[in-house]
């Protein structure tokens, strides 16, 4: 259902930022890629260091809680480039047309 909603939102609101969250990948090992292919355009890596990282385990089975920030970035970059997309190096603000 969430994937269908992402696709519909992308069609109706093409300038919106739609996240491919870690929750998607907790449910399916390719969840963030599926989300990106379905309309999502933002990934949110967990860049928290060390012991504090486990404090962000907001739901059971959350992925990446034991990964380092560097590993997380490398993993996401590999997934994004693997589907023919590029990881932006800027803030990603949307352009406002007037």
TrEMBL record:
The keyword Oxidoreductase applies. Keywords: Oxidoreductase. GO terms for molecular function: oxidoreductase activity; transferase activity. Its EC number is 1.8.-.-. The keyword Oxidoreductase applies. It is an enzyme of class 1 (oxidoreductase). This is [FeFe] hydrogenase maturase subunit HydE. It comes from bioreactor metagenome.
